[in-house]
Amino acid sequence: MRLPRVARRNQLLGAAREVFVAQGYHSAAMDDIAERAGVSKPVLYQHFPGKLELYLALLDQQCEIMVDKIRSALDSTHDNKQRVAATMDAYFDFVEHETGAFRLVFESDLTNEPAVRERVADAQLECARLISVVIAEDTGLAPEESMLLAVGLTGISQVTARYWLASGSSVSRDTASLLISQLAWRGIAKFPMGHHGADGGK
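The chain above was modelled as a monomer; its predicted structure follows.
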């Protein structure tokens, strides 16, 4: 069946995600990806001129998903304690997703490729920037100070969520996320707050 271009591209990205997550960039072959997608190799090359281009397109997709999760978490409430909890949960959700696609962002075997490093760094900075805007609004801290706090919060979230998954911890995902959000909230709540508390007032 001849799929519309966007649908075909998404199908190919889905197949590529499975192969790259399972095998890593270096071991994955375009033949494997075409076979997984059920297409001929020429069809795959019509959409992506090479393995790197395919990997970068997939990385862009996953970085966008991560940033969107953080944006949605921050927009989900005006209660700052709940915002912290939602943001932590968004990272746990991203790393726990059954596709394992977070590995492309956080555990890529292609970090010596500048285009990969740049995309991952940009996505992480964008997450921190979104958080820093909220911190600046609610604490009155300067943008640079808010950004430092935001980078600290994203670092805690990412590192902990990845450790939780990799260690096969018996702690449930909800409990793990709650513990880290409590840790983060008890830290961030000590900064001078504006008038954006639990009542959601401006």
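The chain has a mean pLDDT of 89.
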